[in-house]
Amino acid sequence: ESQIKSQKYMRAHFNYDPKKDRLIPCADAGLTFSDGDVLQILSSEDPNWWQARVVTKDEDGQTGLIPSQPLEEKRKAFVQPDYDYSKSSLLCGLKRRKKKKIKYATKNTTDFDRCDLSIYEEVARMPPFERKTLIIVGATGVGRRSLKERLLKDDPRRFGAVMPHTCREMRDGEVNGKGYFFTDRETMEDDIKAGLYLEYGEYNGNLYGTKIDSINHVTNAGKMCVLDVNPTSLKILKTAEFMPFVVFIAAPSAEALKRMYDYGRQKGIVVRRGDDDYRKAVEESAQIERVYKGLFDMTIVNDSFEDAYKQLRMALNDLGTESQWVPINWGP
Ligand code: 5GP
């Protein structure tokens, strides 16, 4: 890799200030950049220090030296504690609430390799296009479900949701494919073991869950599939197949969260929550952000439901008119 690659673009997943870098040979030659910036790699001849330009709308971004991927990998291997997110209580929230655990776990919900995206990610610029899915992630109780429901209600022709599978008996008047896809327990267990489910849980002795393939029913109908999922699913979903727009709904402060719930109560939306729950939501939110930040396209701090909803709608509309930087393997 000794030739000049001017067509290589990388999204940085960390902040960099050459003035604070003790390794750089000459801080004045360094390039300052922020988490999320797209960098054009002008030269990667030197194994440790690449020549790069910050990509801006006006093409007038600064150029300078940045630490190479291998250099940054070595450095981060020394300083980053390896937090095993997959063992945390965030897994399968629904299962936890119902207090009934099933023994096996899908291979999808474990082994998230956080190092994938902690340094640089190769990206390509694409003309405006619609993403196939919208993934809303965030801590429990910070509003992702409400945002999803609002989208589905306001524009049912543009947005759709996946239909879950269950192995419970069909009730009078129920139809397969309306509300649920009905199946038998054995098939469902096999499919769960085979990793075909995005999430699942057990309720009253019956299995319920969302099959990954069900997303295609929605996208094939020409709709954007809105998914409100555990962030552990991002690894399976952030692919060219599902082309997601990933939005993180961040918790505001515990006080602001409490105010929002108090306001909801005045309007008749009664949810039982204690001070501890607000604090927990804020902690969970920060934890999700720390681990999965590199996979988010956008972060919305939900300190007002109406504002958060407006921001989300605007961002979705912009996708149809502005060029987008996406993972390189999404390209044609
Ligand atoms: P019902 O059998 O009355 O239609 O649903 C009972 C419960 O099953 C729901 O309240 C919910 O807790 C659970 N459930 C429904 N769909 C799903 C799903 O897609 N995944 C999981 N894990 N649980 C579900």
Automatic annotation (TrEMBL):
Superkingdom of this protein's organism: Eukaryota
UniProt keywords, alphabetically: Membrane, SH3 domain, Transmembrane, Transmembrane helix
Keyword Transmembrane helix: yes
Keyword hit for Transmembrane: yes
The Guanylate kinase-like domain, residue ranges: 131-317
Residue span, SH3 domain: 5-76
Family of the protein in this entry: Belongs to the MAGUK family.
Protein name: MAGUK p55 subfamily member 2
Species the sequence originates in: Mizuhopecten yessoensis (Japanese scallop)
